[in-house]
Amino acid sequence: MSLAEKQCAPCQGGVEPMGREQAQRYLEQVPQWALDETGTRIRREFKFKNFVHANEFVDKIGEVAEREGHHPDIHFGYGYAAVDIQTHKIGGLHENDFILAAKIDAIGPQ
Questions:
Q1: Does residue 3 contact residue 42 with C-beta atoms inside 8 Å?
Q2: In this structure, is residue 51 part of a structural domain?
Q3: How far, in Å, are 12, 26, 101 from residue 56 at the CA level?
Q4: Which pLDDT does position 1 carry in this prediction?
């Protein structure tokens, strides 16, 4: 089953975040995302023609995030949207983060 077909599972904390090596393996399934220098979050930047298109995309991310119960940090403006994902409860990465990334990839510009 692909990441985009999976559902995020509620994370109540109390689990260890994945290590850098495991995160790198998951990144193979969402190759346009990058691991940050601390290995605790993933990030992707999207480009758009204008502010309206960026805003529409951010709205779509919000809908996906609500359905999945997993919420990214989003920064956007004229012609761009930058999305950071991590599991806040564990201060690092979990499979849910990569599931959300795959779902965002499915709605975003390629």
A1: no
A2: yes
A3: 31, 28, 17
A4: 78
Number of domains in the chain: 1
**C-alpha of 80 from chain center:** 16
In whole numbers, what is the pLDDT of the chain averaged over residues?
92
Structural domain range at position 67 = 36-83
> SS3 for 42?
strand
Q: Is residue 67 part of a domain?
A: yes
What Å distances lie between residue 83 and 10, 76, 109, CA to CA?
20, 9, 13
Rama region for 79: left / alpha / beta (φ>0; ψ in -120 to 50; rest): left
**Beta-bridge partners for 35:** 42
Residue 50, in any domain of the structure: yes
Residues recorded for the chain: 110
Average pLDDT for 33-44: 96
